[in-house]
Amino acid sequence: MKAAVLHQYNESLSGDSFVRYGDVPDPKIESPTDVIVRIGGAGVCRTDLHVVEGLWRGKVDVELPYIMGHENAGWIEAVGSAVSGMKVGDPVICHPLVTSGHCLACRRGDDMHADGSRFPGINADGGYAEYLRTNQRSLIKLPSTLAPKDVAPYTDAGLTAYRAAKKASRHLLPGEYAVVIGAGGLGHIGIQVLAALCAAEIIVVDRADAALQLAKSCGAHHLVKADEQALERVLELTEGKGAQAVIDFVGEGEAISRGLAMTRNAGTYYVVGYGGRIELPSIDMITSEKSIVGNLVGTYAELVELMALADRGRVHLATREYALKDANQALLDLHHGRIQGRAVLVP
Predict the structure, then answer these.
(1) 12 & 61 share domain
(2) Percentage of the chain lying above the pLDDT 90 cut
(3) Amino acid 243: pLDDT
(4) 60 band by pLDDT with thresholds 50, 70 and 90
(5) Are residues 15 and 111 in the same domain?
């Protein structure tokens, strides 16, 4: 099969080629519960750039060369002997983690923390290819309204945004405020989820005018340019007290300190983006009673819920398609901020 393969790390993200497009062996059924998926779309994520940078070297055990791509959807191509209820040709979306279902975390539905899990595209070969090996437990059948290439990025970008927005929505009441920092590939989904699940006033902060306009179309009530006056404007909108919930889809640079400052006393700062550091005196935590909550992808059940919202037209994913052979161009466009929404590779 054809695949775009990572052969070496590039810590500075320099040059114009990160992966090599060429022939690699087809994945094979290795376990009775395995499923081979013919890829219809593979999302291009900022995490992929972090993988290229080598940021994940100390977090996962993976040897180069390998195939990135952890946001995948397509059609079933082959099934193991123990697979039931699914057949060749079924359109499916892949939960990003491949788990056994037997450990305690699995039984509690806490897929992200399962023992011995496999994460295609992170610690195993992923979907920047024509075919992907996963298992039945990770697959969700798609309704006829949703095409694989249109929903592939929901499996990480959408699911992560959904998980954070769902957590926030459970504590947001009408008349309260939610701030979303970053209206890009994740943020524009998070805005729609907040609008679908709660009645809070949604304030969106981003440095790009195009992203702010996208946020407006997604249901944002207030738009704030991410400049030196951003904190002041958010405080003006929130009666000088800050928001009950701040969801930070950037997680680096000044976004962290500003996000915490935008969080009201006894409010919650949800960090989704990463790459920076959270530094806060313990006395400030005590006197403000703010909560800081991390968010890692989402559960299988939450992906089912997100697909239900997509099926009903309550969330829409802005995508830009690239041919698989043009994976380097997609990565470069993402790196240089030329993509509105999400990039998707289509074999």
Answers:
(1) yes
(2) 92
(3) 98
(4) confident
(5) yes
Can you give the pLDDT at residue 61? 82
Element (H, E) at 34: strand 34-44
Report the DSSP beta bridge partners of residue 204. Answer: 180, 223
Express each pLDDT in 276-287 by its tens digit.
999 999 999 999
- Mark whether 219 and 163 lie in a shared domain: yes
pTM (2 d.p.): 0.93
Torsion angles phi and psi, residue 9, rounded to 5:
-80, 155
Q: Return left, alpha or beta for 121; rule: phi > 0 is left, psi -120 to 50 is alpha, else beta.
A: left
Per-residue pLDDT at 148:
97
Tell me how many degrees the CA angle 35-321-218 measures, rounded to the nearest 5: 100
Domain enclosing residue 26, as ranges: 2-156+299-346
Q: Both 264 and 318 in a single domain?
A: no
Q: Does 210 lie in the same domain as 273?
A: yes
Q: At what angle do helices 209-218 and 187-197 cross, to 10 degrees?
A: 20
Q: State how far Cα 92 lies from the chain centre.
A: 18
Residue type, 85: G
User: How far are the Cα atoms of 56, 110, 123, 345 from residue 2, in angstroms, in the given order?
Assistant: 25, 34, 20, 12
State how far the Cα of 212 lies from the Cα of 222, in Å rounded to an integer: 9
Dihedral pair phi/psi, residue 344, rounded to 5°: -130, 130
Helix residue spans in the chain (DSSP H): 46-53, 104-107, 148-151, 157-169, 187-197, 209-218, 230-237, 254-262, 282-288, 300-311, 327-335
pLDDT band per the 50, 70, 90 thresholds, residue 341: confident
Phi/psi of residue 315, each to 5°? -130, 145
DSSP secondary structure string for all residues of 165-208 = HHHHHTT--TT-EEEEE--STTHHHHHHHHHHH---EEEEEES-
Which of 121, 124, 227, 246 is CA-nearest to residue 187? 246
User: pLDDT of 232-270, one tens digit each?
Assistant: 999 999 999 999 999 999 999 999 999 999 999 999 999
At residue 21, what are phi and psi to the nearest 5 degrees? -90, 130
For residue 197, the domain's CATH number is 3.40.50.720
